[in-house]
Amino acid sequence: MMRRVYLDNNATTPLAPEVFEAMKPYLAEDYGNASSIHWFGQRAKAAIENAREELAHLIHARPAEIVFTSGGTESDNAAIFGIVEAAKRPSKHVVTSNIEHHAVLYASRELEKRGVRVTYIRAGADGVVDPADLERAIEPDTVLITVMHANNELGTIQPLEEIGLMARERDIYFHSDAVQSVGKIPVDVEELGVDLLSLSAHKLNGPKGVGALYVRKGTILKPLLYGGHHERDRRPGTENTAGIVGLGRASALAREGIAEEGARVGVLRDELERAILERVPLSAVNGDRARRLPTTTNIRFDHIEGEGFVIALDLKGVACSTGAACSSGSVEVSHVLSGIGLTPAQARSSIRFSLGRNNTPADVAATLDVLPEVVERLRAVSPHYKSAVASG
Asked: Which of 322, 259, 293, 262 is nearest to 178 (CA)?
């Protein structure tokens, strides 16, 4: 049988066996509604509160500051619309970056339709936002700054500590989409200086369909949804007990080995990257190679169409991505890669490899066994490559 290698962990991660085992009772015998006062309900309530404590411990927050949601997209929307709608000002301004996840970018565009002014700070060629550029964008009516922690396509880590200090000095709320960073690198909401932080369980070997929003104590946030009094009136709706338990267990697993696992995966990533650059001509890494997640590399293979490359690698048993999973099938050029200055051709020839806790040295070796040959074969039929070779 063909060996299958999964290198698309930024899209989603496999559910950890320990997480599945923790969830199973709440999918069957412990089926109570956590809002019920009887024995069944209180068992569910206790499990949710235990998960809240585990997640709070992972990001160095208070349990009461954790709001469970359906995932990163809801958390981003709840933070952005919640802060802006709660702001009591005649005019409102928001600052964000041009390389945010679509959950932030599209929410920002909707704000503009509602009359809110939004400034999009351009990241540098290294995929990192310059705090000085952001500082110049702040205006007297700025109510929110939202900048992601780690970029989902490049893995580049943004200077949140500097931005957080800047926001706090000006009494501006600061939100960060940390969906890609939580569980992969240490995240401390106090050190980062954020007032709100979004995360998702399925990015740290938890289940899909559950996430959380950290809301600093004292933050004034208008609810995105209306209904019951769940989650301290922050997010109504019967809690996804099994999913929340899974997020709690995944948080505990991540916290227990975050430094060691980050170092291990970083070694694998570096070996994969080094060998590709060495064996494949006309290849280059996109973004900063130092300030990034240990899990991620985004590599450009000139004169190759990325979609065809992903399909060809998949036929050889290697799963990777051209960018964000939510853009799969789209003919649009990645807004992240174009946002850091790549040409459309360069952006379309870029591939993201993202590793996780299930990857091994054998996975890297298997990928390197097939990748150079796939590149050579695709370039052999590329008119762009033939023209480039002919012109010297």
From this structure: 293
Measuring CA to CA, which residue among 75, 172, 174 is closest to residue 129? Answer: 174
Give CA–CA dist 295/281, Å, rounded. Answer: 23
Two tokens, residue 284: 């280059």
Q: Yes or no: say if 95 and 142 are a contact pair by the CB < 8 Å rule.
A: yes
The pLDDT tens digits for 360-380 are 999 999 999 999 999 999 999
pLDDT at 385 over 90: no
Select from 232, 75, 83, 217 the least CA-distant residue to 149. Answer: 75
Domain ranges for the chain: 5-12+258-390, 17-254
The CATH number assigned to the domain with range 17-254 reads 3.40.640.10
| b (16+ CB within 10 A) / e for 93-130 | bbbbbebbbebbbebbeebeeeebebbbbebeebbbbe
In the predicted model, is pLDDT for residue 84 greater than 70?
yes
- Per the CB < 8 A criterion, the answer to whether 250 and 183 are in contact is yes
* 211-250 pLDDT, tens digit each: 999 999 999 999 999 999 999 989 999 999 999 999 999 9
**Superfamily (CATH H level) for 5-12+258-390:** Aspartate Aminotransferase, domain 1 (3.90.1150.10)
Residue 49 CB neighbour total at 10 angstroms = 15
- Catalytic residue, chosen from 125, 225, 325, 326, is 326
Please give the C-alpha separations between residue 56 and each of 50, 51, 149, 233, in angstroms, as whole numbers: 10, 8, 17, 19
The question of whether 326 is a catalytic residue gets the answer yes
Instruction: Convert the pLDDT of each residue in 275-290 to its tens digit.
Output: 999 999 999 999 999 9
In this prediction, residue 332 carries a pLDDT of 80
